[in-house]
Amino acid sequence: MDQAQSLRHLVSSQDTKRITKEGSAARVITVCSGKGGVGKSNFTLNFALALQSLGKKVLLFDADIGMANIDVLMGVSPRYNLYHLLTREADIHRVVQLGPQDLPFIAGGSGMDVLFSLSEADLNYFTTQIAEIADSMDFILFDTGAGLSKETMKFISSADDCLVVTTPEPTAITDAYALMKVVHNSQPDVSFRLIVNQAGDIREAATTSDKIRMAASRFLQLNLPFLGHISSDSHVVQAVKRQVPFILAYPNSAAAKDVHLLAVRYLASDAAIETKVQGIKGFIRKWLIRNR
């Protein structure tokens, strides 16, 4: 059974029934960071697997233009990526690959620029294709590029929720705040949640969070929920070298336990249970039309 057949089986199985509650749909989450090197992509991958382990259906979309590396972190060499869907060389069932634990993902890289010049017919085709998979999901995670490019800004402002990843380093703290400031001043309705990665201990994570949250409250009048932290853990580096997600390679490590707890907290939060969401079609329309 090839990847496409496996994906069709996954989507059509009893475990992946469409959400039937009126007004509900897959929740679109973007993961961003003020600067590179904070472990954003690694967090996104392991967070997706943690949500999946809790019974949620998750689609992971590598939207890091020019620096896509989710497939590398998984040790997977995708045959197809977004470009093949846009050029209609492959349908969505072939473009969506299956990673560890049969996690569905769309590889990034080439093709992102083509998105911003689609005709109305091509846009409708793209949206319909993505919806074939996305409508069966509970969450769609977009791993965006580091920093605040024009493209990342569009992702953040179009999604239902944005998880901001930072570390205790002063430059990471400053850049994370700067990103939220620019987005909030332009789109004040964007929902942010803060995650502190590579924290030495709980106290350092709390101190880092307090600095950003106090600045956001004082200068932006922005209530910034702190979702939690991920411990600085040598197992993370070892897992990256092995090209295996650390939540699978070292499930009893501190970092793996922290990510699992973050997933539990997120599912218990108001954001995760909010029923007034736009779904993937609404997200794509907002995202791409903003670029025209």
Please tell me about this protein's structure.
- One of its GO terms (biological process) is negative regulation of cell division.
- By secondary structure, this protein is an alpha/beta fold.
- It has one domain: P-loop containing nucleotide triphosphate hydrolases (Rossmann fold).
- It has 15 helices and 8 strands.
- The protein has an 8-stranded mixed beta sheet, with helices on both faces.
- Strand 7 (192-199), helix 10 (202-220) and strand 8 (226-231) form a beta-alpha-beta unit.
- Helix 7 runs antiparallel to helix 15 (279-289).
- The longest helix is centred in the last third of the chain and has 19 residues, at 202-220.
- The termini are far apart.
- Residues 14-23 have low confidence and may be disordered.
Summarize this structure briefly.
With 292 residues, the chain is α/β, with parallel strands linked by helices. The protein contains 15 helices and 8 strands.
Oligomer: single chain
Q: What is the global morphology?
A: globular
Tally of strands: 8
Q: What's the helix-strand series?
A: HEHEHHHEEHHEHEHEHEHHHHH
Number of helices: 15
Would you state the CATH class? Alpha Beta
Architecture (CATH level 2) name: 3-Layer(aba) Sandwich
**Mean pLDDT across every amino acid position:** 87
List keywords for this structure.
292 residues; alpha/beta; Rossmann fold; eight-stranded mixed beta sheet; 15 helices; 8 strands; 15% strand; ATP-binding; P-loop_NTPase; ATP binding; nucleotide-binding; MinD_FleN
